[in-house]
Amino acid sequence: MEMTVGRHFLGVTTARISELNRNSQKKIAIGIGFALLAAGLEALGDVLPKPMMASEIPSSPFVLVFISYLANGILFTPFAFSRKNRGKNALSRRSMSLLIIVGVIEVFSTIFFFYGLKETTAINAKILLNSEIVFGIIIALTFLGERLKKIETLPLSLIIIGAVLVPFLQDGIAGKIFSTNILGDSFVLISGLLLGTVVSLYKYISDSIRLSQIMQITSFVGAGACFITMISLGIPIYIDSSQIPGILFVGIFGIGIAAVCYISAMKHIGAVNTILVFSSTTVFGTVFSNLLLAENILVNNIISIGFIIVGIIFLRKKVSD
Asked: Per the domain annotation, does 306 fall within a domain?
């Protein structure tokens, strides 16, 4: 009798373990899927604006960014004020101030990226945007009191070489030191600095604030800051109607849905694994630039991407903090 009960218990336990393993594998697969989807959508959102700014009647980067952020804000408004979330929308003055600052810095990061994308290749722009990781770590070391371990020095150096030095040297050696390509590279580098600042500021935003609320506020603040800047600089608000679907895709999917997928991936596989999978966004961006814009993938580009991915793999814990 005891043996029968024991065998029954063992059978139930084995079945339970198998079920847990299946659920765990399913959870991991879903998380990886979300991370890859986020990487792909963000890459598309970073590549698609380039032809819009190079058409016969080019759109201003300011106008593209304004419409993208406005669309993203509108997308998340119903979720931020849904019936389920009523009574939970009160924000402290500190949180609101931080979200406003983040919204302003983030939109100017996007504006600088678009201006850089306009002047340099989409592949270079996507690679250079990884400088966000470098600047984020530098800001954390300088202002947040964090320390860099000796073992982390080499991977950080690999990211610096891959994300900054190789792209700049590629344009410089080609005799383009004072060309628009170098100017574009510089704009993307500024974008990376601003994005690294945004990532550092997000650490001070309360975890109790929902993603929908963060996206809604930062998007509307960014759109407002962009609109005020356009009016101040006298930039005409003109857009080719044929480009509107593409711009809406960039705002809704390239920014909004990509962020939702990224957060969903973190919930399934954790921050470290999400960052590792999401690092493929540079690969996606390179492939999309080749397929959609007919840009050539050079050996230097492959070397850059390799350095960046290896650096991220070894710095994954530092990046996820």
From this structure: yes
